[in-house]
Amino acid sequence: MSQIKSGIALSYLSLAIINVVGILFTPYLINTLGNHEYGVFSIVGGLMGMLSLINFGLGGTLVRFIAKYRGEKDTKGTENLLALSLILFTALGVIMLIAGLTVAYNLALLFPNLATEDIELVKVMFIILAVSTAVSLPGIVFHCIQVAYERFIFSKVLEIIKTLVRVVAIVALLAQGHKAIAVIAVDAVVLLVTFLLNVLYVFKKMNVNIKLHNIDAPLLMSVFKYSFWFAVGMLVTQLTWNSGQLILARTGATTDVAIFAVAVALSGYFIAIATAISNVYSPKASFMEGAGAKDDDFSHMLINIGRSQLFIVGLFLVGFIAIGKSFIYLWLGGDYISSFYVTCLLILPVVLSISQSFATSVVQAKNLIAKSAIIKLVLACISVIAAYVSSLHYGLFGVAVSLSICWLLNLVFLNVFYQFYVKLDVIKFMRQCWLPFLPSFAVATGLGLYLSHVFIVNNWFDLFISAALIAVIYLVLTVTFYLNTKERKQVYKFMRINKMLKVRYD
Questions:
Q1: Which one of 88, 140, 447, 485 counts the least CB within 10 Å of its CB?
Q2: Of 4-13, 249-258, 324-333, 363-372, which gets the smallest average pLDDT?
């Protein structure tokens, strides 16, 4: 099996493990820490998301340039690029450390509503995580090497292992009476160990050479110019997702932060499920650009990947809309029911957008990221301002609605950009992806909601039965009315029922 196919398979295995672990572990973590301390813990995550912007988008930039050099078969250029990148990331680690310590000692100014003991707790946790992140920042170079060389197996297996080890270590410490600081300490150790293992793999298994041949000023200018706009894109992501928690930490209560954090986590699962395929193909776009691929080639791949993404994420979306409220009630209790409505507001506009996630890779490959980033940044800033104002009057749901509207506007403007500037055939994409998908999705959702009213969920077994029935309804509808012959073949082969159905293919 190729690295790409293995990478996709391991991506979904990793997602399955992460999701299952998250479902099992999150209620334990909330019950152990309590709603208040879990909210404080979530603030640290939001702060770290903003601090991560200091890497300036060089990670995504590095993947693009390595893949481009590979397409051009420029070995010396690759070696020099990696050496320069390693120097840059080390310098950025120092800057991140200084910035992290500065933020840590000025938390009272950022969050005046937090109690003094909460400020001290956030400070300690944030310093631990900021130091470990800064030290391990050069590890991004070694991860990018694996991605750009399409060596996905090791990174995906490592991701699975570290997820399991992290949970086991945290549970062991919490069982001994430790609290949120122990969770952060485990995360810090996992970061450092992952950094070391990636370094060993690149040098010992991949035999990649990192050598500084010269200080290539034009290359550095190209990298910084490209990474600046990549960093703007990262800022947009942080403003869209992490700003909500920080806004609520400033204007609301820590319980609102906790509820919003759960919704963001659930939304993150949907996005990860949808983008697992496109992430694996991301370096392919840069490779194709370096090899002289045509616009039609990119459009064809966008459509194929988008259809697969919609088919997979649609299953989870239909299920969540139909029985998500029951799931959250059984999972976290009645205090977190609001997370269902917030998640729906956040994820519904995003599903269509992330079905086009490969377009982002094409934008990067064609070096058109500046225009894309400007569009996203303007809309993100508008949404953050609207979210802050709305939070003062409508609290949690004001933030969620503002972000949801931002994604809808973002979808409209980006599609115009993809059509006329990136030269992707968006009209054809809509005809072949969205339009044939929406009828099956609408019918499956309607039947799922009807089933949820007829079959009342009282326990986990009831939820499992409902989920299975909804999955069958969705699969029958989409396989019959949405997938084409080639896609059905892939589904039947995956389910090992092609012989039983005696399906013939050309």
A1: 485
A2: 4-13
Rounded CA separation 238/271 (Å): 14
Q: CA separation (Å) from 75 to 69, 86, 268, 362?
A: 7, 17, 37, 23
Considering only CA atoms, which of 282, 261, 370 is closest in space to residue 26?
A: 261
Alpha-helical runs (H) found in 291-425: 295-332, 338-354, 357-365, 369-420
Structure tokens at 97: 């450390």
DSSP secondary structure, 115-161, as one string: -HHHHHHHHHHHHHHHHHHHHHTTHHHHHHHHHHTT-HHHHHHHHHH
Contacts of 344 (CB under 8 A, 6+ apart): 320, 321, 324
Section 195-214 average pLDDT: 83
CA diameter of the chain: 70
Contact 184, 121 (CB under 8 A): no
Other CB atoms within a 10 A radius of the CB of residue 206 amount to 14
Give the residue from 188, 47, 65, 169 showing the smallest Cα distance to 129: 188
Lowest mean pLDDT of 220-229, 386-395, 423-432, 440-449, name the range.
220-229
**DSSP-based three-state secondary structure for 465:** helix
End-to-end CA distance of the chain: 23
The C-alpha atoms of residue 425 and residue 422 are separated, in whole angstroms, by 9
218, amino acid identity: P
Per-range mean pLDDT, top range of 38-52, 79-93, 143-157, 476-490: 476-490
Residue 469 CB partners (closer than 8 Å, separation 6+): 451, 455
- Fill in the amino acid letter for 189: V
Establish how many alpha carbons lie within 13 A of residue 393's alpha carbon, considering only the half-sphere containing its beta carbon.
Answer: 6
Type of residue at 212 = L
d(Cα 40, Cα 107) in Å, to the nearest integer? 12
Mind listing the pLDDT tens digit for each residue in 369-416? 778 888 888 888 888 898 899 988 888 898 888 888 888 888 888 899
Q: What is the mean pLDDT of residues 113-127?
A: 86
CB 139 within 8 A of CB 199: yes
Q: pTM of this prediction?
A: 0.71
3-class DSSP assignment, residue 187: helix
Q: Residue holding tokens 């949405």? A: 482
Cβ distance 434 to 286 under 8 Å? no
